[in-house]
Amino acid sequence: MSDRELELAATPHLKAGASTARIMWSVVGSLVPVVAAAAWYFGYPALLVVASATLGAVVTERALGPRGSLRDGSAAITGLLLGLALPAGLPLWMAFVGGAFGIGFGKAIFGGLGQNVFNPALLGRAFLQAAFPVALTTWPAVGGGWTALRGATFALPFTGGGATDAVTAATPLGLWKFEGETTPLGALAIGQTGGSLGETASILILLGGAYLAWKRYLDWRVPAAVFGSVAALSAVLSAIDSERYPGPLFMLFSGGLILGAVYMATDPVTSPVTRRGAWVFGIGIGVLVVVIRVWGGLPEGVMYAILLMNALVPFIDRATRPRVFGTGREAESA
Amino acid sequence: MDRPSRPLQLIRSFRSIGGSAFRLSAGFRHGVHPPDSKQLTEHVPIRRMPFPEEIVLPLRQHAGKPAIPLVAAGDRVERGDKIAAADGFVSAPVHASATGVITGIGLGPHPDGTMSPAVRIAVERFSPQIPRPRLVPHWEGLSPQEVVHAVQDAGVVGLGGAAFPTHVKLSPPPGARVELLIVNGAECEPYLTTDHRTMVEHPDRVWFGVRIMMHCLGVARTVVGVERNKPDAISALEASRPSDLDVAVMPLTVKYPQGAEKMLIRAITGREVPSGKLPLHVGVVVQNAGSIATIAEVFQTGLPLVERIVTVTGPGVRRPSNLVVPVGTKLRDVLEFCGGLSEDVTEILFGGPMMGLPQSDLDVPILKGTTGVVALTRAETERRTVYPCIHCGRCLDACPVFLDPQRLGALAQVGRYEEMEDLHLADCMLCGSCSYVCPSNIPLSQMFALGKGALRRVGPTRAA
Hints:
The structure holds two protein chains of two kinds. Chain A is mostly helical. Chain A has helices at about 20-40, 45-65, 75-85, 90-105, 120-130, 135, 170-180, 185-190, 200-215, 220-240, 250-255, 255-265, 275-295, 300-320, 330. The radius of gyration of chain A is 21 Å and the shape is globular. Chain A starts with 19 loop residues before the first helix and ends with a helix. Chain B has 15 helices and 17 strands. Among the domains of chain B are: about 5-40 and about 140-300, Rossmann fold (3-Layer(aba) Sandwich); about 395-460, no CATH class. Chain B is an alpha/beta fold. Chain B has a six-stranded mixed beta sheet with strand order 1-14-13-17-15-16. In chain B, strands 2-8-7-4 form a four-stranded antiparallel beta sheet, with no helix packed on it. A four-stranded parallel beta sheet of chain B has the order 11-10-9-12, sandwiched between helices. In chain B, strand 7 (about 100-110) and strand 8 form a beta hairpin. Chain B is globular and about 65 Å long. At the A-B interface, helix 1 and helix 15 of A face helix 1, helix 9, strand 15, helix 11 and helix 14 of B.
């Protein structure tokens, strides 16, 4: 037998399942229907907002990230998620800046993928909210034609913008908080309400999340814990005073809760690695969401709830690290 | 170590063994499910391969001190003659696996990647290879010490891979009480079928070996653990189960690494061997099924350990087989007997794909501890892009000893080995489950092997 070149590789010589890039691109794929729904409700400006945010994220990743890091798909997810968390009438340059900030200050500055503390998309959103509070809370109404503008979409940077006669509508949470009105559940579930692009298509987001959970590309415990704790806490509150506090279904289906719980809180990088930690993290988010919505000055609290819990992840991980085999109680009893 | 609750616990766990017919199977927590790929050889009967022209017998084929050669170049040896003696208690002798003439003692390629001293034998071409007649010791008349001595003298070591001298396991330190003997028939490594075929074709040998070990250890009960993917082995063992012994066959969950000692004990008794302790600490001795069959052979034929069963398999082997191979046969000869390699072979492993040693030289010999030869092709060994760790936690869910591999990996990358020690790096058995599931293709178990090596060189840095 002739001798041949043989390779020497470290064990194991087998490999399971999907790669990181495959997981990330699957997340991108599962968001396509959500983006399509946003376009259905808000016309082509919705697509432009999402595209601008994604462009901002991708360009920044290309400029600041390691070579070839665009291929792992994580920058595209950041851009898409940020875009879906923005109002349809936002000037495109703002969406672009948000994406760039999210990747630059939310990720690249920490050392790139896997090193960041905060969810980059939410950090970009928080930056925009602080920098352009009016633009970020001007919610166009659902409907209108495919081609109709919903705001100063094409405004140049720092020109003021905003002075269009697009029809705006308060979000369900805003209505509840400031007007005391509740929106019917059916409208909430299919997205016939004002709000960010991705806040509206609850059912599609849940379907996308279910697909990812089934493929084990996201940890189902996080959204389960968020939904469970929000439902439980708001059920208790509305049982105490149903006039002041809305019921669990309204709380679950309004605002960015579903998008946040399914797609943002489950970002593996900024959520705990342990199973028990995932429960702690999700419950923490749920409690903070209800607290901010009910007692805070803002109508919506999902973004800050997730960012706050992001900061606690290293501590949660440390506190919930599993007991090593052959140590602790079970080993002593042997 | 002895607490009042312990006998009770034992009874409970044994009762659950008795009820195993009604249970699905026993297992452990975490672990992974690689495709077992055993269909290539699981129904292929064991065949004997012809003697090669040359035999290479490394002096280091077992855990412990290398053997000391007893022969010199030019000596004629017969099959079964001792050619190297054990050096101390934790060591094993080496025997000539074929009749022939010693051509020299010198460095040769060893499967672990080093050059290592080995005895070379030019095999006599027309020898019938009948071993020198010897007295077959009648084990029932022997004291446990004499049985232990006979086992060591026959050079028997664990055939499951680690090659730990068997007689050491048969001599528990005074004061230690062994309550249960576990026969490891899990064979959880993909591709390998040596223990499987041994249990199917020679269940009587397994039981005879069990009888001798029980006599030696003074243990009253034995459980044979077999993964459920070997139903023919389970039924063969059940059919020949001796009625005068307290022995049972227990089907186990098909999961890697079910055959790891601590996982096996957990699956069968429900007990965890404490970190840093031996199975003896929970009153258990574990022995691999193939090794037990070898003990039986020693007392049936008088022939020492000079041959073993090897699975030669993988998509790169033309005729996958289960072979009886004389120890010291070169990899080249074994592959040739199996029809050679296909064109696209990229890696050849000694052992299974999860923990096996890759080979670069076709002149390495089959050792006592070589369970199999697996030839992988381009399709299985494609190099994958390494991405940064995304903290997905899959490695934590895979680790059978509940370590935090992603944290350990981050520490290894920056050389913080002392902190790895604090996170129980010592409990890592390098099973590779974490690397297997990592979506970012980070070579975690390789990093842990390096970390363990670095810590071994400096010694423990903190009190345990």
